[in-house]
Amino acid sequence: MTLRRTACAALLAGATLLVTGAAHSTEIFDEDEVALILSHGPWPVKTDPDPSNRMSGKPAAIAYGKILFESNDLSIDRQRSCATCHQEALGFGDGIARGFGIARVDRNTPPLFNMRLNRWFGWDGKSDNLWAQSIAPILDARELGMTPEILKARLVETPNLADGYRDVFGAPLATHDAETAMVNVAKALAAFQETIVSGKSSFDRFRDALAAEDKAGIDAYPDPAKRGLKLFVGKGRCDLCHFGANFTNGEFHDIGMPHFPAPGRVDKGRYGGIQHLRKSRFNLLGPFNDDGLRATAGFTRHVRLTPKNWGEFRVPSLRNAALTAPYMHDGSKDTLADVVNHYSEIPEERLHQDGEKLLRPLHLSDAEKADLVAFLRTL
Amino acid sequence: MRHFLPGTLLCASLIAAGPALADHCPSDTLSKLPEQLKDGGTAIAYQTNPAKIEVGKPSIEVVACVDGDKHMAPSRIRVDAGMPMHGHGMNYTPSERKISPGHSSFDGMVFHMPGHWQITFDVYEGDTRQRLTRKVSLKR
Predict the structure, then answer these.
(1) pLDDT for position B96
(2) B139 contacts in chain A (CB < 8 Å)
(3) Among B33, B41, B47, CA closest to B75
(4) What ipTM describes this predicted complex?
(5) Which CATH number fits domain B10-138: 3.90.190.20, 3.40.50.300, 2.60.40.10, 3.40.50.720?
(6) Which end of chain A has less neighbouring CB within 10 Å, N or C?
């Protein structure tokens, strides 16, 4: 707190240090805003290995996981891999509205940055750990279309995958049943994905400069982004859900998006996610959790299923937002400007009557929208 | 709002919410709990673990117990929380663990957003409920 006050005092003393829109504005961040800005860091966040995955953080498993991630042998038709839909050049997404493996799915392909910070995985949070989430596309008939038995057979007949499995897990594939082999594959995939961590962004450098009272660093952050940041933590109240270093509370909200992927078919969102979670053998309360104490299973043990979960989807991290278009669970917003427009004119009639009362149209001006987008592009 | 018999003292410590039987809390436990709530003849003492509630942190713990007023019938207590201004509660249901007669802890509370929360202590005597509340303001 002392540091924050000092930083704020320095800003005030500097008079023009955080002047925004220099030609027409004398706004600066006040003490509360400085505190809120600093709460979005520092970055990166130090993380520990996942106790539910004995392969987490192990170099051999990470290397094997990368091979698996890029291997077409994990798909039933040998035509696609995890990397087909999670492309590094596209922010570990695919750049299209709804993912397409063997067939089109109902939701946007989520990016894979900073997975270790997630509490829930998938737009509906149907998985409480990354290795379980990695199993989902392997088995989904629209994505990789495998079964545990076919997956094991593929590994056995592919020398580098079979050898890698034996080296990482300390036993030949033949000694493991198909389900165990699949879970092990998923744990290696998770170990690899955990290493995909986004670097320091323009915002992070500004935030660090603010903490360090580094005037040059503060000045280097563009004025439109500063004005957008002020909206983000102020009028927009965006940071009520997108808070902390990863710009998300990791939970689920109904933000008025449609949840009918096709006529007559509804996407249950979080409601279906919790139902799936509770039935899954691969959740943290199940037999494949490597942590006998189940120390990280508290969220799973206590998660509450209510009617308001219908139409709720996970609050995504905003890091690298500029790289991960299109947006929303159904990929229906092509640009960040479209996302900002959604919140500016949010369709209140779409929101649950018993749902979030926080959301209301922001009615942003065109200049404000542009500033908010400018800020989002710095994350 | 119904009040219990004068002298009834309910002591609660907050760690998680769920139905539980409230009984009589040892007086030495009552005196150790830092937070006090009282409405008419019902009073609650509670504590959270950790003492400072932080946004998004798992497993905030609350402990609850009932003082030894022998006039009070066996009852149950629920601990929960919500954000009245947002119109929603927690995304998690606390689970109850009895520590001793009249003394329970509730584990699994998660306050998933910054802002104004209200922790509720519902004390039941039969079908009659007495609700005590405490406002908590959480910052990012």
Answers:
(1) 87
(2) 35
(3) B41
(4) 0.85
(5) 2.60.40.10
(6) N
> Please, which residues 28-67 of chain B have a Cβ atom closer than 8 Å to chain A?
55-56, 58-59
Is residue B90 within 8 Å of B48, Cβ to Cβ? no
> Using an 8 Å Cβ cutoff, are A69 and A190 in contact?
no
Residue whose C-alpha is closest to residue A336's, from A199, A222, A206, A238? A238
Decide: B57 and B9 in contact? Cβ < 8 Å: no
Q: Which domain holds residue A68?
A: 48-197+270-309
Confirm whether A293 is domain-assigned.
yes
Nearest-CA residue of chain A relative to B115? Answer: A240
Q: Which long-range contacts (CB under 8 A, 24 or more apart) does B85-90 make?
A: B85/A357, B85/A358, B85/B115, B85/B116, B86/A356, B86/A357, B86/A358, B86/B113, B86/B115, B87/A354, B87/A355, B87/A356, B87/A357, B88/A308, B88/A355, B88/A356, B88/A357, B89/A304, B90/A304, B90/B17
Is A176:A184 a contact under the CB 8 Å cutoff? yes
Per-residue pLDDT tens digits for A286-298: 999 999 999 999 9
Residue ranges in chain A whose pLDDT is less than 50 = 1-27
Specify whether A123 is located in the same domain as A192: yes
Digit-coded pLDDT (tens) for A151-193: 999 999 999 999 999 999 999 999 999 999 999 999 999 999 9
What residues of A are in the B interface, CB distance below 8 Å? 35-36, 39, 239-241, 243-244, 249-252, 298-299, 301-304, 308, 354-358
Residue A150 in any domain: the answer is: yes
